Amino acid sequence: MDWDLTSFFAEFNSQDYQTFKADLLSDLDQITKELASLETIAGENLKAWAKWIGEWEDLSTRYGHLGSYLECLTAADAHDEHYAKEEAWLQENSTGMKSLGARFNTILGQANEEEFKTLIQEPKLQGAEFHLIKSRKEALFQMDDEAEALASELNVNGINAWSRLYDTLSGQLKFRYVDAKGETRTAPMGQRVSLISGPNRVVRASAFKGSNEAWADHETTCNAALNSLAGTRHTLDKRRGSDHFLNEACFAARLEQETLNALFQAIDETLALPREILKFRSKKMGIERAAYYDLDAPLNLPDQEPISWESGTALVQESFDAAYPALGAFNKEILEKRWVDYQPRDSKRPGGFCTGSELIHESRIFMTFKDTMTAVTTYAHEVGHAWHSRVMTDQRKFACDYPMTLAESASTFAELLLSDGVISSPDFSDAQKLTLLDSDAVSIISYLLDIPVRFRWEKRFYEERRDGIVSVSRMKALMEEEQRKQFGDTLAEGGFDPYFWCSKLHFYIDGVRFYNFPYTFGYLLSVSLFARFKAEGTPFLSEYETFLKKSGSMSCEQVVSETLGENIQDPAFWKRAIESLNEPFTKLKGLLF
Q: Which pLDDT value is given to residue 149?
């Protein structure tokens, strides 16, 4: 592994690690007994409740610390059975935490309004008010304590197990492809994305075909996993009194369905722009119409060379330093302290993420770097996530629980800083600027065409799953139908990806439903934030950091209203953001003609 994890624990299974685990279990047992003694919220025990909530918050922080550490280990080496076993152990033992949390929510929900208002005014709970209000609302959609406890226990060998199975499968799966020299090679699935986003179309097509053939060999396993995940969720929704499978996703994203509808209405009404961009890129690549494996491919631009890890991170550093010095200093710290695992290895899981611990206030970035500008942009994206956490260091744990929708705004804002830093600087060549502008064009296609396909496919899958098992053939057909609708005439016949539901790990994450629309939401919101930054300059950065800090204690609608003065339930807000993307596209065309 490239990264240094010793600030988490000296090493895996070391003495400090074992002591930490033992203390967690002991404290969980103690806090569970204390909760039972408190029972209902009443005037005479409000201070005792405030103390208990503080202990619960501390325990949650420590569980998160251990979970982040194990996530790093299992992602970096999916072949290590000891890591996998330990991650399974944590999930099994986290059932006690989930049951305790459900019980706490129930008590909050049962408290009368006057007592609850008095409780959240306790000095020890300052900053935790939003979290407690959210927990009280969550109680409206919970089963009784015994049923919630049973659901948590069953999930370990049910919904969690299906997710872990997919992680193990994707981490160990390999496929064959033909490289640029015509030689047949074998690659781990973790390198699929980099190979199908490379410059050589023959290699892209071969890697796409080979990886999908590998997934086809396991299509029944993936189908069983997704049907089981969705089926379990439908059953729990019914028991919890939730009348729609999107309710939980919207609650977790901290937005109203009206906001989500406004977002996708705006996308539908502006499809001409991303489709025009895709057609333009296809023409420049000498392709009449693109295939799915062309979507992330770079244009054949002049004077282009592979970008090394050192050169790519230097590019990020220079852009951050120029526009946002505090972020630049933080990026330097990330690299100096080795907080990134970036080198390709057979044992790595596919994808990338940023995780962190609120106990030690450190982040870790996981990715597979493959000498492309796309990989450089991915790195900047993950640094944006890490910066979000750093800005919130002075906030209590219960004020740092921001949703994916707002998290993705921070990461994409960092991407925009990188792109703008290169494009607007005279120190960079036209070749470098073209590379970033083309990367921006790829992002527009991804956020406005590809990700909406994921959302709408998953939505249709969940709708059909209510009536029974959805077959492999139906899942493939649904995927191609949604790709045809969103991409229109921009994709060639035979150029669709019917196995995308197998290869995209986001569909298999057990803890989050609809792990797709927050990316487009965050992207377009970050476009609006960045437009404000360009208009107001450096003074806006303090407002931006206020936005980040408030993201853990407000709904999406509230935080945007307070920091930008905008109404995100109005499709016009999203359409303005989309229409502003004409600017980078115009610059790309200008440099190419």
A: 83
Q: How many CA atoms lie within 13 A of 360 on its CB side?
A: 16
Contact (CB, 8 A) for 289 and 542: no
- Give the pTM: 0.86
Element holding 556 (H helix, E strand): helix 556-564
Question: Which residue intervals of 285-368 are DSSP H helices?
Answer: 309-323, 325-336
Q: Which of 315, 539, 523, 542 is nearest to 429 (CA)?
A: 315
Q: Rounded to whole angstroms, what are the CA distances from 5 to 12, 49, 369? A: 9, 35, 19
Q: Is residue 287 part of a domain?
A: no
Distance (Å, rounded) from C-alpha 430 to C-alpha 218?
45
Question: What type of residue is 117?
Answer: K
Question: What is the pLDDT confidence band of residue 96, given thresholds at 50, 70 and 90?
Answer: confident
Q: pLDDT tens for residues 412-452?
A: 999 999 999 988 888 888 888 888 899 899 999 999 999 99
User: 406 near 551, Cβ under 8 Å?
Assistant: yes
**Domain CATH for 575:** 1.10.1370.30
Residue-wise pLDDT for 463-517, tens only, equals 999 999 999 999 999 999 999 999 999 999 989 999 999 999 899 998 888 999 9
Instruction: Report d(CA 347, CA 309) in Å as an integer.
Output: 20
Domain boundary among the residues 136, 157, 178 is at 157
Which of 520, 514, 386 lies closest to 462, judged by CA?
514
Give the tens place of pLDDT for each residue, 316-342: 999 999 999 999 999 999 999 999 999
CB 463 within 8 A of CB 449: no
Asked which of 106, 122, 157 is the last residue of a domain, the reply is 157
In 3D, which of 407, 408, 438 has the Cα closest to residue 422? Answer: 438
Q: On the CB side of 228, how many CA atoms lie within 13 Å of its CA?
A: 21
How far apart are the C-alpha atoms of 532 and 562, rounded to whole Å? 14
Contacts of 162 (CB under 8 A, 6+ apart): 224, 225, 228, 229, 508, 510
Residue 376's Cβ-count burial label (10 Å; 0-12, 13-18, 19+) is buried
Strands 184-188 and 174-178 come out as antiparallel
Q: In terms of residue numbers, what domain contains 561?
A: 309-442+516-592
Other CB atoms within 10 A of residue 394 CB: 10
Total domains in the fold of the chain: 2
User: From CA 179, how far away is CA 116, in angstroms rounded?
Assistant: 64
Return the CATH number at 108.
Answer: 1.20.140.70
Residue 131: other Cβ atoms inside 10 A: 21
Residue 246 counted as domain residue = no
**Rounded to a whole number, what is the largest CA-CA distance in the chain?**
78
* Residue 156: pLDDT over 90: no
Q: Cα dist. 369→174, 377, 439, 450 in Å?
A: 18, 10, 16, 22
